Amino acid sequence: MSQAVFQFSSTSVSMDIIKTPAKYVTIFGSQLKSWEIEQTHMRFLDSFKTPTLRLKALRESPGLTQEIIDNPQKSIGPIEKGFDAFEEMRHRFLSFKKDKYLENLEHYQTLARGQAPKFMVIACADSRVCPSSILGFQPGEAFVVRNVANLVPPHENGPTETNAALEFAVNSLEVENILVVGHSCCGGIHALMSMQDEMSSSSFIKSWVVVGKAARLRTIAAVSDLNLDQQCRHCEKESINRSLLNLLTYPWIEDRVEKGMLSLHGGYYDFADCTFEKWTLDCKGCRPKVAGEYSIKNREFWS
């Protein structure tokens, strides 16, 4: 394999090229003519008067390794901050490996061979609402998909990443429960409730949250006398139930629900006071194809 090794200093540049063609040499995945290399050589001589750099490149690897030997310049401050964040992440990973993975090695080795979760969770992408942290799901317990405002589009809307995950979770993993988790202060629901009736926008967010239009209309009909924040709170819960009804538009979900093999649940997390409300869709009392009627059961409030 060809190898190029460059060493730069404030006074000299040395370059060795091994087994390269007569007219061209390959450096970092690009071909340069020999006269271009000579010009590059001269530019290095003229311009390098700062810290010594050592660059190594192997043809089998497209990346570069850059090592700053002298004191770093102030211009790399933002990069150092980025590295600090990943250093913290590295410590968290190593703590996970030591305290959880190695302590439960047999369990994780079993997971490496396959998964059999009982739950599928559809949650919001909001950074404050992590279902594993809130509800204590451990690796292998829940198949999770997250999107803006935890919406489930109806079957007729066509393919999305959400219903692709649904298809895999229901038909392949055969989960027994689908839990749609909404939350307080949801930006996606606020965007939905702030839309005009005749909305025409190139915004990806608005084009997505329009999936919840039925929840918006029912909210306006029910609490139009309240202010926007109060309407949003109502819609946050209403949209969960609309998503549960949308789940029943998928034939393979409806079939498993009717056979008692799958249950549909809603959950609402209020992170302002750390409370959680949970309920189950009463599918026997649902008439989603007739005016979108529904009823719920097994309602619980955790505080």
UniProtKB/TrEMBL annotation:
Entry binding sites for Zn(2+): C124, D126, H183, C186
GO molecular function terms listed in the Swiss-Prot or TrEMBL record: carbonate dehydratase activity; zinc ion binding
Catalyzed reactions per annotation: hydrogencarbonate + H(+) = CO2 + H2O
UniProt-listed Enzyme Commission number(s): 4.2.1.1
Top-level taxon: Eukaryota
Cofactor(s) it depends on: Zn(2+)
SUPFAM superfamilies, per database record: beta-carbonic anhydrase, cab
Cofactor mode of binding and number, as noted: Binds 1 zinc ion per subunit.
Similarity field: Belongs to the beta-class carbonic anhydrase family.
Protein name, as recorded: Carbonic anhydrase
Organism, scientific name: Olea europaea subsp. europaea
